Amino acid sequence: MVDEVLKRAADGGRITADEAVMLYRDAPLEELGAAADAVVRERVGDRITYNVNAHLNPTNICVVGCGFCAFAVWTEKDERAYAYSVDQLVERATELSDLGITELHIVGGMTKEYDLPYYEELFSELKAELPHVSLTALTAVEVDFIAKISKVSHREALERLIAAGHDTMPGGGAEVFSPRVRKIIADRKAPAETWLDVHREAHGQGMRTNATLLFGHFETPEEQVDHMRHLRDLQDDTGGFQAFIPLPFLPGNTDFPYLPGPTREEKLRTIAVARLMLDNFQHIKGHWVMLGEEITSEALSYGLDDLSGTLTEERIAHATTVETPLGLSVSRMENLIHAGGKTPGERNTLYGDVERDGVAA
Fold first, then answer.
1. pLDDT tens across 107-117, in order?
2. How does DSSP classify residue 166?
3. Which of 65, 89, 121, 352 sits between 20 and 30 A of 57, alpha carbons compared?
4. What is the phi/psi pair of residue 180, to 5°?
C-alpha cells in the first residue's frame, strides 16, 4: 500500500489525507524523500531558487502574546521593547537597499498604535523611495487585527493596503489549524477560519500569498496533514498561494523550553509529505533560519525547491536560541544549495528570474 501511494504521488497524482498520514508514519524515509524529489525534478529540474531580501519589524510590542513566540513583549515598559516610526523604517530600508535587495519582508507585533493608517503611510513612503523593491508584508492575523482596530472589513483593509503599495502576503500566523493545538500555543490569536478568510480575500483581490505550518511541538501527524488539507482546498478554489513553508518549532525562550523541537527525521518527513500532499502548490520553501543550514541542504532532496532568501536582519526566529546567522550572503546561499546537489537561481518575489552580474549582499 505504501509503495502504491508513493508511486502515485511521485507521478503527480493526488493523495488523500489518510494516505499522507500513512506515508508520514510508515514510509521509509529515503523512499519518501525520493518520491518528493521526483515531484520537484518534474516541475523545476534541479534548480533551487532564492531571493535577496531583508526584514523590517516595525515593533515587537504585541498584545496577543502567543506561547510559542520568543520575539514579542507585552508592553513598551519591557526593556526589550522597541517601536519604530515610519521615517525610521524608511531610512533603514534605504540603507538595506544598498545590499541589492529585491524584497522587504515586513511583519511585527500587534498593538493599537500600528493601525491601518500607519501601514498605509509606511507602504506608500517605501514605494516612493524604493519603487523597485517588493513589499511582502503583514500576516493574515495582522491584517485581521489592523482591520478590527481601524473598524473596517478585511476587504477594505486589503484594498487600502494594496493601493498604498502592499504587494504580497507572507504565510505567518497559520501555526497549526487544529483548535486543540491552537488553544495550547496561541489561544489569543485569530482562529484558523479567520486566517483562511483573509487569504481568500487577498487572492480575490489578485494578491499572491504564502502559507506556513509550525510543526514539532504538540501537534500529531494527523493534525499536520489536516492543516495541509485546508490549504489544498483553498488553493483548489483560488490558486492564490505561491509557496508552502514548513517551520520547525524552536523552543528556546518560549513558554515551552522543555520541548525538544523536531528531530532531523521529523523535519524531513514533514517537508516530504507536504510536497506530496500539496500537489497544487508550485513551491515548497525552506526557511533555513529555523531548519539550520545542514538540514536545509539535505532537505533539497526531500521536496524543497525554494529557499526563504538572504534574510538580512531576521529577528523573529533569532529571538529564540537558534544559532543560524542573521543573514546569508549570496555566495553562502549558493554554496548551501550546491552542497545539496542542486543548482541555485535568484528569483524575485513573484518567482521571475533575476539576472545580475554581482550583488553586494
1. 998 899 999 99
2. -
3. 352
4. -60, -50
> Do the Cβ atoms of 317 and 290 come closer than 8 Å?
yes
Please provide the size of the chain in residues.
361
Instruction: Answer yes or no: are the C-beta atoms of 268 and 227 closer than 8 Å.
Output: no
Question: What does the alpha-carbon distance between residue 286 and residue 50 come to, in Å, rounded to a whole number?
Answer: 10
3-state secondary structure of 212: strand
| Cell numbers that stand for 192 in this block | 484558523
Give the Cα separation of 228 and 230 in Å (integer): 5
Kindly report, residue by residue over 300-333, the tens digit of the pLDDT: 999 999 998 876 654 444 344 444 455 678 888 8
Q: Which amino acid is at 185?
A: I
211 neighbors 241 (Cβ within 8 angstroms): yes
- Separation of alpha carbons 262 and 239, rounded Å: 30
Q: Look at the block and give the residue holding cell 510536497.
A: 275
Nine-digit cell at 175? 501555526
Taking each helix axis as running N to C, give the angle between helix 264-277 and helix 29-44, from 0 to 180 degrees, rounded to the nearest 10.
50
**C-alpha gyration radius of the chain:** 19
CB-based burial, 193-221: b 16+ in 10 Å, e otherwise: ebbbbbbbbbbeeebbbbbbbbbbbbbeb
Question: Which H or E run contains 56?
Answer: strand 53-56
Please give the C-alpha separations between residue 253 and each of 64, 70, 71, 228, in angstroms, as whole numbers: 17, 5, 9, 28
- Alpha helix (H) ranges present in the chain? 2-10, 17-26, 29-44, 86-97, 116-129, 140-149, 154-164, 179-185, 192-204, 221-238, 264-277, 288-291, 293-299, 330-339
125, 93 Cβ separation under 8 angstroms: no
Query: Hey, what domains does the chain have and what are their CATH numbers?
Result: 2-346 (3.20.20.70)
pLDDT digits (tens, 9 = 90+) for 163-215: 999 999 999 999 999 999 999 998 889 999 999 999 999 999 999 999 999 99
Cα 207 to its chain centre, rounded Å, is 16
Using CA atoms, how far residue 149 sits from 72, 239, 301, 316, in Å, is: 19, 30, 44, 24
Cα–Cα dist 197/154, whole Å: 9
Pairing outcome for strands 283-286 and 241-248: parallel
Contact status, residue 310 vs residue 330, Cβ threshold 8 Å: yes
As a whole number of angstroms, the distance between CA 79 and CA 342 comes to 44
Of 193, 197, 223, which is closest to residue 209 (Cα–Cα)?
Answer: 197
Q: Which of 219, 210, 192 is nearest to 68 (CA)?
A: 219
